[in-house]
Specification:
This protein is an alpha/beta fold. The chain contains 18 helices and 27 strands. The strands form seven sheets. It has a nine-stranded mixed β-sheet with strand order 4-3-12-11-13-14-15-16-17, with helices on both faces. Strands 18, 19, 20, 21 and 22 form a five-stranded antiparallel β-sheet that branches. It starts with 8 loop residues before the first strand and ends with a helix.
Length: about 550
C-alpha cells in the first residue's frame, strides 16, 4: 500500500504540498498529553441512555498506547497490516483508530448496518485484514460467518492495561513513504458490484483536515459534535481535525433527532456536521426544539454536505434556528472537503450564496478544475488535485487508472463556477452518470428538484431521475413524498399540469417531470449517512414502470 509519490497543487502560482507538522500520530498524541493533559479529548454521548463518557488527552494517549501494544503482542498486528472494525459509533473506535495509526497499521471500517456477511467478507479479503474487531455479543456469529479471520472483541482489547507501545514505534515518520502510508481503507458505497476501497493516506487525511481547519477557523476552543457514523469519511476526517487543533470531540452513539439539540446544548458544542436529510428532520421537528427551550448559543456553525442541499430548506433552517449552515463539497476519494463556503461572509453575501446553492470556494490543500469549463457558467466534470487526493483504489488498477489520471481525480460530478464577492464559487450541476439526456438535451436532476421544492409546498421531498423513453431516450421522472394530509392523486395531477404548462418557475415544460411517482420515506434506498442512492431509486422505479 506504499507509493512514495507526493501529491501537489498550485497556490499563488507556486507548487504546494502538505506535510504533517508532527513526525507521526504518536507524537501528536504525546504532545497533546503533555500540553493538555486534563482537557477532554473525547466526549462520548449515548443517545439512548444519555450516558456520558469523558476521555482526557492524557488518558487517550495512554489507552491508545496500551491498545497498540496489546494488538501487536497478542494478535501479531504490525506495521502495514489491516484491521477490520465492525462497530457502531462508540468511544472505542477513535481509540482503536489511533492505536492502529501508532502501529503503522491500517484501519478498515465496516458498516454494520448495511454490510451483509458476503460484503464484509469481500472487504476484509480485499484488504487482507488480519483481525476483525467486534462487540462481545457479535463475536460468536462472526466467528462462524468468517472462520478465516481472527476475531477480537472490544472487551478483550480494553483489557489492555499493562501493555505499552514504547518499543513498537512505527517506522513511518516524516519521509515520503510515511506520508503515503495508507492509514484507512474506506469502501465507497455502490449499488451494483463490489465497493471500491479508497486508500486514504496519512497525507491525504491530514491535508484535508488541515484544509478544513483553515476554512472553518478551528482552534483548541472547538467542541465539535459528530452524529454521522465513523465508518464514513465525514466523521472520520472531522474527528482528525479535533485532535489536530487540540479541541474536544463530542461523539454521538448515533443520529437521533430528539437528542441532537439536547446534546449540543448540554456539551456547549461550537460546531456540528450533518447531511441534508438531518437538516430536513430537524426543521420538521422545530416546534419540539422551541418547546424544550434548548440553549444553543455556543453553536457558531453547522457544516453540511455529502449530498445535494436544497437551498429553500437550507434558508428555512437558518431562519428558524439562527445558526449558519456552511456548505462544503467533496468525496471519500479526496478525503472529505475540497470546497467550502467561507463561514465569515457578511450577512447579505452569505444569504445570496446560500440561496444560489454554492458549494464553496477552493480549500487550502487542493485545486479544483471544471473540465472544459473556461468561462463562468460552463458546465463540465469537477476535477481535483493536490495532497488531499487518496492513493487510488485498493487492488483495483483499472478503476484507479480511470478516475485518478494525469494528476487529477475525476469526480464524476458536473459543475461550474461563478466569480462573486472576490471569490471563485463552485456549483453542482449533478452526477455525470445521473444527468438526464432528453432528446440530446442535458437536464440536471438537482435543478429540477430545486424548482419543484420551491414551487410545491405540498412536497416533503422529491428525487428526480431519468427513465427510458422510446422517443427521447430518457424522460424526466420525480419520486415524490407528499406531506401528511395532502390528497396524493390530486397533488400528482396538479404538479404534472403546472409543469407541462410551464407554470413552475425556473423550469421549462421540456424539463418538467412527465411522471410523478408517489413514494414513502421508507421506500428510499439510503446509505448509512442518510444519502439517497439515486441510481438504486432509478432502478426500483424503472422496474415498477416496466411491470406496469
Amino acid at each position: 500500500m506504499i507509493n512514495a509519490q507526493i501529491f501537489t497543487c498550485i497556490k499563488n502560482a507556486n507548487s504546494h504540498t502538505y506535510r504533517f507538522p508532527w513526525r507521526n500520530f504518536t507524537h501528536l498524541l504525546k504532545y497533546r498529553a503533555e500540553h493538555q493533559a486534563d482537557k477532554p479529548a473525547l466526549i462520548f454521548c449515548d443517545c439512548d441512555t444519555d450516558a456520558r463518557t469523558v476521555i482526557t488527552y492524557s488518558e487517550f494517549e495512554r489507552l491508545t498506547a496500551a491498545l497498540a501494544g496489546l494488538m501487536h503482542r497478542e494478535y501479531g498486528i504490525r506495521c502495514g497490516d489491516c484491521v477490520g472494525v465492525a462497530l457502531s459509533n462508540c468511544a472505542e473506535i477513535p481509540l482503536l483508530t489511533f492505536a492502529l495509526f501508532r502501529l503503522g497499521a491500517t484501519s478498515v471500517p465496516l458498516d454494520i448496518a448495511k454490510d451483509v456477511t458476503e460484503r464484509k467478507r469481500y472487504k476484509l479479503q480485499n484488504a487482507g485484514a488480519r483481525l476483525l474487531v467486534v462487540l462481545p455479543e457479535h463475536a460468536e456469529d462472526q466467528r462462524r460467518a468468517l472462520p478465516d479471520i481472527q476475531i477480537a472483541t472490544t472487551e478483550q482489547l480494553l483489557a489492555a492495561d499493562g501493555y505499552d507501545a514504547a518499543d513498537i514505534e512505527p517506522e513511518w515518520s516524516g519521509d515520503p513513504e510515511g506520508e503515503q502510508h495508507t492509514s484507512i481503507v474506506l469502501y465507497t458505497s455502490g449499488t451494483t458490484g463490489h465497493p471500491k476501497g479508497a486508500c486514504i493516506t496519512r497525507q491525504s487525511l491530514t491535508a484535508n483536515a488541515d484544509g478544513i481547519i483553515r476554512w472553518l477557523g478551528f482552534d483548541a476552543r472547538e467542541r465539535l459534535n459528530l452524529v454521522l457514523p465513523l465508518h464514513h469519511i465525514n466523521s472520520t476526517t472531522f474527528s482528525i481535525t479535533s485532535f489536530m487543533v487540540g479541541g474536544s470531540l463530542v461523539l454521538n452513539s448515533r443520529y437521533s433527532v430528539s437528542a441532537f439539540w439536547r446534546i449540543i446544548s448540554r456539551e456547549r458544542a461550537t460546531s456540528a456536521s450533518i447531511v441534508p436529510t438531518i437538516m430536513a428532520d430537524l426543521l420538521a421537528r422545530a416546534d419540539d426544539f422551541e418547546r424544550e427551550g434548548y440553549d444553543i448559543s455556543s453553536l457558531k456553525k453547522v457544516m453540511i454536505g455529502s449530498a445535494p442541499v436544497p437551498p429553500n430548506i437550507a434558508c428555512q433552517f437558518v431562519d428558524r434556528f439562527g445558526v449558519r449552515l456552511v456548505q462544503g463539497y467533496g468525496s471519500t476519494e479526496v478525503s472529505l472537503r475540497v470546497t467550502g463556503v467561507p463561514p465569515d461572509l457578511p450577512d447579505e453575501q452569505y444569504r445570496d450564496v446560500l440561496e444560489q446553492n454554492a458549494i464553496g470556494v477552493e480549500l487550502a490543500n487542493n485545486n479544483i478544475r471544471i473540465d472544459g469549463g473556461r468561462n463562468e457558467g460552463d458546465i463540465g466534470e469537477i476535477l481535483i488535485r493536490g495532497p488531499v487526493v487518496a492513493n487510488g483504489y485498493l487492488n483495483q488498477p483499472k478503476d484507479t487508472a480511470e478516475v485518478f489520471c494525469n494528476g487529477w481525480f475525476h469526480s464524476g460530478d458536473m459543475g461550474y463556477f461563478r466569480d462573486m464577492y472576490n471569490h471563485r464559487f463552485y456549483f453542482m450541476h449533478g452526477r455525470k452518470k445521473e444527468i438526464i439526456i432528453k432528446g440530446g438535451v442535458n437536464i440536471s436532476p438537482i435543478a429540477v428538484e430545486n424548482a419543484l421544492r420551491a414551487a410545491c409546498p405540498e412536497l416533503d421531498a422529491v428525487y428526480v431521475i431519468g427513465l427510458r423513453h422510446d422517443r427521447w431516450g430518457e424522460d424526466v421522472c420525480a419520486a415524490a413524498i407528499f406531506k401528511s394530509g395532502i390528497n396524493v392523486a390530486e397533488g400528482v395531477q396538479d404538479i404534472l399540469r403546472r409543469g407541462q404548462s410551464g407554470q413552475i418557475p425556473g423550469l421549462s415544460a421540456y424539463e418538467a417531470p412527465s411522471h410523478i411517482i408517489p413514494i414513502t420515506p421508507e421506500d428510499r434506498p439510503l446509505t448509512s449517512t442518510g444519502k439517497v442512492q439515486r441510481s438504486a431509486l432509478q432502478e426500483i422505479i424503472q422496474n415498477q414502470i416496466d411491470i406496469i
